[in-house]
Amino acid sequence: SPFDVEKVKEACQILQGSHDFATFAGKTGSGVDTKRTINQITVTEGRPLLDPAFEPLYSNLQFWDITVNSRSFLYRQVRKTVGVLVALGQERISFDDLHRMLSIPSRDSWPSKAITAPPAGLYLVNVHYPREAFCFPYPDFSAVDSWEGDKKL
């Protein structure tokens, strides 16, 4: 089916920033804060893992890399976010659906035509810890409050 990457890029801009991502979370325990800040989310043209010379079917496919940067994520938040972006790019859901997911944060706001992206293809690329996290002795985790990106919500 057709994929409108410009719509996906527009949706990425909407998802950036601080939101209550309860709609995008898998199971959460009671009392879990579902507010998170997405610092950056981008979609760029990707490439297959194998050279198309070894897998001829790849030459008929488009590959896209979706990169999400945040201090932390909810369980399944990234997979659900990618699923929503794909559904929007394929016009199975609308921008109204996306806005509803963010403005009414609830599992009930999940559109029936969106699916959670499968874990295959999801990669953790980088983890950043501030220099203070490696200072010893490290008596407690009170320094965590000062880490970049914390307390923004």
From TrEMBL:
Keyword Isomerase listed: yes
Tagged with keyword Hydrolase: no
Keywords attached to this entry: Isomerase, tRNA processing
Catalytic activity: uridine(38/39/40) in tRNA = pseudouridine(38/39/40) in tRNA
Boundaries of every Pseudouridine synthase I TruA alpha/beta domain copy: 11-130
Extent of the signal sequence: none
EC numbers: 5.4.99.12
Any single Pfam family the record assigns to this protein: PseudoU_synth_1
Family stated for the protein in its record: Belongs to the tRNA pseudouridine synthase TruA family.
The name this protein goes by in its record: tRNA pseudouridine synthase
Source organism of this protein record: Penaeus vannamei
